[in-house]
Every structure is written in structure tokens, then in C-alpha cells.
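Next comes a single protein record:
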Amino acid sequence: MASFEIMAGEGMHWVKATLHGDSLRAESGALSYIEGDVAVEAPLPSFKQLLAAVLAEEALIRPRYQGTGEVFLEAGLGNFHVVELEDEEMILEAGSYWASDGDIELSAYREPAWTSLWTGEGLLKFSTKVRGTGKVVVRVPGPVEEVRLSDSVYRTEGKIVVGRSSSLKYTVRRPTRSVFGYMLAGEGFLKSFEGSGRLLVCYTPYWMLRLQEMIRRD
């Protein structure tokens, strides 16, 4: 399997992937440079993959790198987090996928319409689903903490959860039991994750990204 290392310098982070006769996939346009005997392939997607990519607002083609050498992916102001999958499945927020071992399966996942509607993301919200055994690199706005749930519930307001085990039940609820209490609380709807599995949680985005978000809003 490919090995991934998160590099840092000058306030930036980037990913270094090392191949020993194996392969990896990466987001389209993520490549910075290659050292060694590594071939790049960009297979054409099937109609189903094409449709899923358009609906999920994800890259249509994710190149495959195969051989022996080092692949360096582009730097950014945010951060990257490596997730280890053991014959399991996770759902990543749209735009979070960055790279993965070649054997990891990628597909689009449609969130429940009612849940997406109440979170303000419309009736059709698609995420990226990764499945298999190997490593997945996630692009995130800051440091990530992996929260493990064991037949328990985790609730949050906002978009701090960037990935979750597909085994977790995902719903949206009011922060209070009554509608009147909800109106007085001044809080939005809470995203609820219930069951057993993992959450990838980014509590604190880096200040530079937060500043960029504020500028865009203005």
C-alpha cells in the first residue's frame, strides 16, 4: 500500500505519497511533482460515475499514479488528515477527499432529502463515500480529532464533522424538546450522529482560512 506523510513549512501543508510498486488515486489537479518511475493514468468515467461526479460537485476524473517513487501533492493553507480504513466505509463531506490507496473504492452518496433540507443544503446533497482497506487522505480546514462512538450520540451545530462511518445514523434535530424553547435558545438545528463508529471532527479552522471566509461573506 502507498504510504502518506503530511509535510509542513512556511505555514503551508502538503502530502507526500511513497509508492513501492503499488498505486494511489488523488483529486484532479492535486499533483505538484513526481520523483521516480511513476506512471499517471486518467481513465474515462462510466456514465454512472459521470452522473455521480456532477451531482456530488466533485472532480470528474481522479488520476491514478502507479509505480515506484514519490508523489507530492499541492500545498494549501488548510491541513490534511490520514484515515486508516479496515474493511469499512466512511462518508466524507463534499470537497474533503484528497487522495487514497489505489484499492479504496470511491463513489457518491446521497444524503437523506429531509436531513439535507433542514441543514440548509437543499434537497439534493451528495457526499463522497470511501470503502475498503487502506489509507484515505482528507483535506480539512484545520486539525482533526477522531471521535469514536460506542452506541452513543454526538450532536453538533455547524459543519465541524468532515467525515463519518456509514454505520452511524445521521439526523437533524432541534436543540430543545419544544418549538418555543427552540425559538428562545437562539441556536440552529443540531446534526445528530448516533450508533457505533468514527467521526472526523475539525473544531478549529486555521485563522487564515477563517479570515478568507469572513472576507467572502462581506
Notes: The chain has four helices and twelve strands.
